[in-house]
Design a protein that fits this description.
The chain has about 350 residues and is mainly beta. The chain has 2 domains: about 130 residues, Jelly Rolls; about 140 residues, Jelly Rolls (Sandwich). It is built from 6 helices and 25 strands. A hairpin with a 3-residue loop joins strand 6 and strand 7. The longest helix is centred in the first third of the chain and has 13 residues. The chain binds fe (ii) ion. Fe (ii) ion (FE2) binds next to loops.
């Protein structure tokens, strides 16, 4: 499914024209006609388009969905775990359950796309959302227990018994309620810092796809706990891909085209795209290949890949007649440096 730049621009214009909503969020959700929740673009992913006019700020908000955002127009400030200023094509995360505020401190409309796992939480019946200044309060209420009691019944001191030689174990309740914490700060990938790492001349040997990696996702290699974001593409003059086949994976893939033009073939159907278009470029397990034009292309790809790794359901077939691999559960696909590109 293709959402053209013209359609996105028209909606940006409309959002900028409506009276300011009470919570400051001029926001539309880009919904797939087959969405199960009437709120999603892929079954697990929402893509929202938000506009803030110069001087506007949103009411503080928090949710148990995790958010990944890209600036597609103007500039603005995100306040979450401190503040950072964003510019065109910057990508950043807003971790779940962190109060946050968006503020346009620039002179033109600030436009961003927000990818969220909210629709999946809706399907599970557990989407949590809260609004108002209280969400910025980080102090937690006291649980009424003494330090000694808290130490005694913590996971470090809970029973943990090996039951069988093969490895089955029994563990106490503390392991369920006192999970070891992996720091998950909001992180920001400024475009001006990413840019020098991209390939700018055909044949310069630089990588054609980079994962925007958040260390908090550990072996799931994500940008948030649910999604990875990659910056892919190639410069003008790069030889065109001529293969007939693509690859496929159970993660669903969404491309936002930053520059260039070309077409994709998804399950045998050709879709033409250009800079500014948003494309559901690969519904889960659909074979897909992308064919760029002479001027090259840059693309932000978002996939629910870490979610699948956590569930053990990430199937990957890099070559149409190659093995179907369960990534993270068995040895993965070696030998490739980009989709359909074998390293030399
Ligand atoms: Fe893919």
């Amino acid at each position: 499914m293709l959402v053209t730049r013209e359609a996105i621009d028209a909606e940006i214009e409309r959002l900028g024209r409506i009276p300011r909503p009470a919570n400051g969020r001029r926001c539309s959700v880009i919904v797939h006609p087959a969405s199960r929740t009437a709120n999603s673009f892929t079954p697990g992913t929402q893509v929202a388009l938000s506009v803030l006019l110069p001087g506007e700020r949103t009411a503080p908000f928090k949710t148990n969905a995790n958010l990944l955002e890209i600036c597609i127009g103007g500039s603005g400030r995100v306040t979450v775990d401190g503040s950072f200023d964003t510019a065109l094509h910057d990508v950043w995360t807003v971790p779940s359950m962190r109060g946050h505020v968006h503020e346009n401190n620039g002179s033109t409309p600030w436009v961003r796309l927000t990818y969220s796992n909210g629709p999946l939480l809706e399907l599970l019946g557990v989407l949590f959302e809260e609004e108002g200044v209280a969400v910025l309060e980080r102090e937690r209420p006291h649980d009424g227990l003494s330090q000694e009691h808290r130490r005694k019944y913590a996971w470090e001191n809970a029973p943990d018994i090996q039951l069988t030689q093969a490895g089955a174990r029994l563990r106490g309740y503390e392991y369920l309620t006192d999970i070891s914490v992996v720091p998950n700060p909001a992180l920001h990938w400024p475009w001006k810092e990413v840019w020098p790492h991209l390939s700018h001349e055909a044949g310069d040997g630089k990588r054609r796809i980079w994962l925007l990696y958040h260390p908090g996702t550990e072996r799931r290699n994500g940008t948030t706990g649910t999604y990875f974001a990659t910056i892919g593409g190639c410069p003008a003059g790069t030889p065109l891909y001529t293969g007939a086949h693509g690859h496929r994976h159970t993660s669903a893939s969404i491309n936002y085209h930053i520059s260039g033009h070309g077409h994709s073939v998804v399950d045998g159907v050709r879709v033409d795209w250009k800079a500014g278009d948003l494309l559901l470029s690969a519904p889960g397990w659909s074979e897909h290949a992308h064919y760029h034009g002479e001027e090259g292309w840059r693309v932000l790809t978002v996939q629910d890949h870490p979610l699948h790794i956590a569930m053990g359901s990430l199937l990957w077939q890099e070559k149409y007649d190659g093995p179907i691999l369960a990534l993270g559960s068995e040895e993965g696909q070696k030998g490739y440096t980009a989709p359909r590109t074998q390293g030399d």
